[in-house]
Design brief:
The chain is an all-alpha fold and about 300 residues long. Helix content is about 75%, strand content about 0%. Helix 4 runs parallel beside helix 8 and helix 5 crosses helix 8. It is flat, with a radius of gyration of 26 Å.
Length: about 300
Amino acid sequence: MSTLTRPAVHRRSNTDRLRQGLANGKFTAVLILLPPALILFSLFVILPLADAAYYSAFSWNGYGTPTNFVGTQNYERLLDHSVFHTALWNTAKLILVSLIIQMPLALGLALLVYRKTPTNTLFRLVFFLPYILAEVAAGLIWSFVFDGDYGITAFMFQTLGQESVYVLADRQWAFPAIMTVIVWKYFGFHMMIYIAALQSVPKDLIEAAKLEGAKPRQVALFVQIPLIKHAIVVSGFFAIIGSLQIFDIIIPMTNGGPSNSTHTIVTYLYTFGLSRLNIGFGSAAAVVLFVLAIGIALFYQRATAKEART
């Protein structure tokens, strides 16, 4: 008897939930808001990705209908290309610099200026201004700074009576200069994430730690930082995905040079795919970039979720 009545109770509970959802307007909101989101996602994500996967199987210049089917040759060329290996390594270095240098710098500054005072407000504005600046404008400004003939670097060396250094024309120093600019450009964004999280930390916990004799450094390490782990996880996700998409700063600074030594995956895609009208090859690079982004995002999500459980 009990086994026969349980499904009925289960059905009634589901029916009650459905009625409650309709009464609260939740299902109506979903029916209204979900279709536009799905349409936009399909138009701007799913369809372009499907087109890229399709075109990657052709040798095509972008004009007319692709007819020269080459199968996986574009992927084979891509994986055998030494410049693509350099672009992968440069992208990995950007991720590491973002996680190891940019995020700790932003967290340290956030701990210094998170309190609501006029002076801290001024410092926040100064630190956040680089992020507001357009990427292309930032790249042009820093290309002038590093210019060995007319830039600030040239002026400094001439003032010291030394021979000028062409930083962006040196294979050894060009990409470190780009990484420096990227840290300068985006650390303010991460700092604001940390500031918002730090301001939500209960003040009574901080005061209790101070009463127990904890120093400011100990308060930060054992009270504040553990309580803003969720913000650090979000910041790390933005740092990784942003590093995979770096393009607008590199093009005006070096355009991938010297000798293709400063390419990332996106600038490689643009230079060897779009600008050379090799759309099939560029589409293959785009597919690889998408797979890398999804793989890294899933790995990061699992790693952070596992750490949160422990």
